[in-house]
Amino acid sequence: MRAAVCPEQGTVAVTDVPDPELRAPTDVILRIRATTICGSDLHLRNGHIPTPWGFCLGHEYVGEVVEIGGAVSQVRIGDRVVGPAAPWCGSCPTCRRGRIQRCPRGGVFGSGAAWGDLGGAQAEYLRVPWGDRILSAVPDTIEDGQALTVGDVLSTGWTAVRRSVHGPGATVLVLGCGPVGLSAIHTASLYGPSRIVAVDSVPERLRLARALGATHTVGADEDVAAAIADLTDGLGADSVIEAAGADAAFATATAAVSIGGTIAVVGIHGAPVEVPMADLLTKNVSIWAGLGDLGRMDELLALIAAGRLDPAPMFTHHLPFDRIEDAYRMMDAGANGMVKPLITSITPGRRGAGIRLRS
């Protein structure tokens, strides 16, 4: 099959690799219908997340079930499904405590041997472990692109909102309008906030933030804390979602948060961050940081099907799989206002084994 492979630092190439095979009776093989590129894919390609070279990229996917293991009973051949970026077994002590984000038996798709060696979703086919447990059926009324978001960015942004927005009427400040920040903005609207303020340095992203629910926008080069103080009569933001991963973002969050407010950190930081502990202490600030909860995809799919959410606008570019190398270059350079590309037209070759069951 064809797959986007990272053979060396800074390079992505579409090349032929072996088709995935069922390894366990709980496995499912998907034909990939849609995928995308995440910021962490760029970090992997550029060597910022260590893993041995030669791995297939991609952890976001919507696919059609083409093979199932003998123990799979809920997922059927031909089903259109979406899955999480990071699978979980559901039976280990970590999973049984509800901490599925860091299942020691799992890993992250498209991240190589250092992260579970699971294969990547930027390919014609993908093997998914524990298929019955982690895959969600996509309703007929939902487009592939809409469904694609629930396996990573929409779930992550929503997790930050649930952890930091504690009631209606809140002022929600989102620092960074990449896909996760935009997802936080979009899902925050479910909770009846009085205002949602988006901060970014790119005008196109601020316009997209407005389309997804932001009521106010502030440039990253402005005095964000002062802008929030003006909007709130000096009270500050009840919820600050740090989705930028930039060095100055946490200091901005601390300055802008209200007394008794909450900061949720989902931005990926590549270096240690200075924490203004005295300010946090005297303002009685609660801090939550973590990965997105990928175990509630069905709830997000239901909200999309009901018309309460539509994350499709965050896909600023639609490209065929044959142009995925171009998509990486464009996304890395921020060319043409690209925020997130929707990669489709993944035409697979014929699988020699056809549909198989393994017990």
From TrEMBL:
<keyword id="KW-0862">Zinc</keyword>
<dbReference type="Pfam" id="PF08240">
    <property type="entry name" value="ADH_N"/>
</dbReference>
<dbReference type="InterPro" id="IPR036291">
    <property type="entry name" value="NAD(P)-bd_dom_sf"/>
</dbReference>
<comment type="similarity">
    <text>Belongs to the zinc-containing alcohol dehydrogenase family.</text>
</comment>
<feature type="domain" description="Enoyl reductase (ER)">
    <location>
        <begin position="10"/>
        <end position="339"/>
    </location>
</feature>
<dbReference type="GO" id="GO:0008270">
    <property type="term" value="F:zinc ion binding"/>
</dbReference>
<protein>
    <submittedName>
        <fullName>L-threonine 3-dehydrogenase</fullName>
        <ecNumber>1.1.1.103</ecNumber>
    </submittedName>
</protein>
<dbReference type="InterPro" id="IPR011032">
    <property type="entry name" value="GroES-like_sf"/>
</dbReference>
<keyword id="KW-0560">Oxidoreductase</keyword>
<dbReference type="InterPro" id="IPR013149">
    <property type="entry name" value="ADH-like_C"/>
</dbReference>
<dbReference type="Pfam" id="PF00107">
    <property type="entry name" value="ADH_zinc_N"/>
</dbReference>
<dbReference type="GO" id="GO:0008743">
    <property type="term" value="F:L-threonine 3-dehydrogenase activity"/>
</dbReference>
<dbReference type="InterPro" id="IPR020843">
    <property type="entry name" value="ER"/>
</dbReference>
<dbReference type="InterPro" id="IPR002328">
    <property type="entry name" value="ADH_Zn_CS"/>
</dbReference>
<keyword id="KW-0479">Metal-binding</keyword>
<dbReference type="InterPro" id="IPR013154">
    <property type="entry name" value="ADH-like_N"/>
</dbReference>
